[in-house]
Amino acid sequence: MLIATLLTVHAIYSARPLAGVPPSGFTWSPDGSKLIYTVIAPDTSQPPVIRIRDVRSGTDRVLLRARSNLRGSRSRPLSQIVWSPDGTRIAYLNGDELWVDQVKSGSEHEIATGADDPQWSADGTRIAYVHENDLYVATLGSDERQRLTFTGSPTRINGDPDWLYSEELDVSHAYAWSPKGDAIAYLSFDESPIAPFPIQDYLPTINSVEEQRYPLAGRANARVSLHVVELSTGQDRLLYDGAPRDEYLVSFTWSPDDRAVLDEIVDRAQQHLRLELFPRDGASSRTLWRESNSRFIDEQPAPTWLPDGRFLWLSARGGVQGVYLVGLDGEARLLTGSTPIAAILRADEHVIYAAAMAPTRRELTLLAVPLHGGAPHIVTRRRGWHAISMPEHGDEYVDAFSSVSQPPIVTIRRLNSSQEQILFSTPSLASYDLGTTRELEIPSQWGLLDAVLTVPRDFDPRHRYPVIVTAYGGPLPVGDALPSADRWQGLYTFLLAQHGFLCFSIDGPASNVDRVANERLFSKRMGRIAMAGQLAGVAWLKRQPYVDASRLGLFGWSYGGYLTSFTLTHAPGVFRSGIAGAPPADWHFYDTAYTERYMGEPQHNARAYRETSVLPAAGRLDSQLLILQGSSDDNVHLMNSISLLEAFIKAGKRVEYFLYPGARHGVAGIAAQRDLYTRMLLWWERTL
Questions:
Q1: Among residues 165, 274, 286, 292, which one has the least CA distance to residue 224?
Q2: Neighbouring residues of 309: CB distance < 8 A, sequence distance ≥ 6
Q3: What does the pLDDT look like over 559-573, one tens digit per residue?
Q4: What are the residue ranges spanned by the domains of the chain?
Q5: What is the mean pLDDT of residues 120-129?
Q6: Which of 37, 271, 387, 643 could form a disulfide with 23 if both were Cys (CB 3.0 to 4.6 A apart)?
């Protein structure tokens, strides 16, 4: 009889992990014939390797080796790569160095240092980039450099999204070339009203302090304005200033005729959104789209223009996020019915390809939507979770797929064909005798809630097991994977099952973002509504004969860390122990755009902030609690954990705390991850 091999933390988190390391960072050439992707180095402290694949011939080779793990900006991925319009060259960042590579010959040319966010002009003769918070343009084949803006400083950013816009408003680029290449539209951020927030790095011989402009809820935001600068004259024209009304100027795009810029503008309360068309010459603007909600609205990516001058816009105004076809006269038509749409992936004059939650809200698929009649249809064949990357043109696309029963596999597939090229498949795990994950629907006063339960392979329903409940619980965009999504749960879950734990996750009533009304439940009740899902899950668990209700644990990171600490202090006695990773302790300590979307400003909603805070309830803790965080977290600052510790000390409650030196909001690196997941396993074994 073959004895199964047990999983170990060291085998899961290693230079050559059991499950392998899927490629990422997919960047298609414009014609879809070539694909660049990133392969993480076996030693995660080392820079990644960038590979290129000719999808027609199937040949694959190393394109370059990154020289630095540093990235150009907080808002873009490592080794950002941008194809030239003709597909013969790439511009890429290696650390903060900007290079151009001839793809066929491999010859390289350095363009600039201290650069960020390269973007090609439409004719491929010039590259724009950001340097020291100002915009520059380099003309290829010469040493000519044109500086376009002159006000950049530590508190003035031109053409690069600040921390808030990149983190909370999903703005990846804060400038854009005009279609003819004779002007650039950009956002300018005046961060001087925001007090610098210190993030200390304790590791160097001499401690260093990073000053982050982090706007706390209820306090000053950056003053943001939209500009166009003409390359021929250098004239910088202000199109709109959002500062007087304290607005967010989110995603923007040029009209195809080169004559105007279309910008998404949202009020600070995030209850009103409009799409405003600003003529390039500074003439009066006009509004093409409006939507509002008395609780909050969600920001969207930039509109997608069609060749006929109309554009596609994502909106949830009808109760479900869908794709609307909008004309310059403001007339709009919903194209996607009741199917929740996560993103528009590509569009032409005939068809739209979109990422959709279909056929159920647990799944993500590639959906084809005809523009001129006909019903949308699902392109992907397998049930589960498909993360899709598509080129501007061509029939191939990348499909990163998994399900609760299928480990990840990454393929290059062809539209309307069963052909595929395998880029990555998870190595065989047959010898590890993994458990099984079951999809469940849990009854509650809000209807059925999605959940998953992982049990060991030798599961015995007559035995009573401890249960670890893993939660996120917070608001997520449509298409982001919730804990109960039909995708691979990861080997650590099965390791816990091998150690005798059941692993359970449930989505709360507000987390089911297939319907707008669900997400709106977060308004002014961030803790209570998220906790309600976990309590409904516990009520179901207690009815199962194989669950030991006296041995329940709760774990979450980020919002899940908040939910863990909130639940243990606001529903004492339910869970025996918990682990709270990087937990927001009080919403006064979090940023403006995220917090105020759901909570309003604290000066106007003091009761909501008080009732959603963990701190006043610290004295009610009667569970064992472990708090974990990175010492250099730039998202949930260390002040949150310190405030929690102070509240528990004053209340006479003993908790345990561990800090990861130099770690940001997540814990990276093999050694640190091994420590983290071993520490968590030992905690559950000791407390449950």
A1: 165
A2: 255, 256, 257, 327, 328
A3: 999 999 999 999 999
A4: 430-687
A5: 96
A6: 37
